[in-house]
Each structure stands twice: as C-alpha cells, then as structure tokens.
C-alpha cells in the first residue's frame, strides 16, 4: 500500500504561519523554521502584553491623577481617600482624563472633597 501524506494540510499550515510572519525582517518572513519560531514568540508576547497593558494604563492614570491633585495641595492617596469618603464613584480613567483635558472640572471635584 502506498504511503499516504497529507500535503494539502501541511502546505495550508505553513502558508498560515508565513502569512502571520509577513512584514518580519530577513529570513523570519520566508523560511519556515525561522518564521514558525518568530510567530510562536510573537504570540506569546501578544498574550502576555494584553494583560500588561491593563497594568500600564492603570499606572498612567494614577500618575496623572496624582499630578492633578498635587496642583491643588493633595497627594494621590489623600485625594482618593476623600473621594471614597464622600461617595464619589468616578473611576481612575475618567479622573485622569479630567485632570489632563478639563482642569476646571477636576478642580471642582477637588474642591468638593476638601
């Protein structure tokens, strides 16, 4: 009995990976073994960094809120504590946006909690 090889599926699998490697530099874009390793690593990075992005943005928001609060004589922790005490439920994303793009509205919030 002749040997059965599924070349169609093999070629499709390789085409899929090489398509994902499009735009890579050098042999990473057109040599199967190098491209497969590069795409595998890229997928690991993308999975990891989808989670890291959330941490990074939270840190950025906290930095912006802290800068805005310090302009009005409060630290970040004092400001957030007073927000909670006054039952003002604005998340960090909104507060950071106000601190950056609408300083008078942020000042009104600071004055309300003081």
UniProtKB/TrEMBL annotation:
Keywords recorded for this protein, A-Z: Ribonucleoprotein, Ribosomal protein, RNA-binding, rRNA-binding
Pfam families for the chain: Ribosomal_L20
GO cellular component, one term: ribosome
Record bears the keyword Ribonucleoprotein: yes
NCBIfam families (UniProt xref): rplT_bact
Entry function: Binds directly to 23S ribosomal RNA and is necessary for the in vitro assembly process of the 50S ribosomal subunit. It is not involved in the protein synthesizing functions of that subunit.
PANTHER family given in the database record: 39S RIBOSOMAL PROTEIN L20
Family: Belongs to the bacterial ribosomal protein bL20 family.
Protein name: Large ribosomal subunit protein bL20
Organism phylogeny: Bacteria, Pseudomonadati, Bacteroidota, Flavobacteriia, Flavobacteriales
């Amino acid at each position: 009995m002749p040997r059965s090889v599924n070349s169609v599926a093999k070629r499709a699998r390789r085409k899929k990976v090489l398509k994902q490697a499009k735009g890579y530099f050098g042999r990473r874009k057109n040599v199967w073994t190098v491209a497969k390793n590069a795409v595998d690593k890229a997928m690991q990075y993308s999975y990891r960094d989808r989670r890291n992005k959330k941490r990074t943005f939270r840190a950025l928001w906290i930095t912006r809120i802290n800068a805005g609060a310090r302009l009005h004589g409060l630290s970040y922790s004092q400001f957030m504590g007073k927000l909670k005490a006054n039952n003002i439920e604005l998340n960090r994303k909104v507060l950071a946006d106000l601190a950056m793009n609408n300083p008078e509205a942020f000042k009104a919030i600071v004055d309300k909690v003081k």
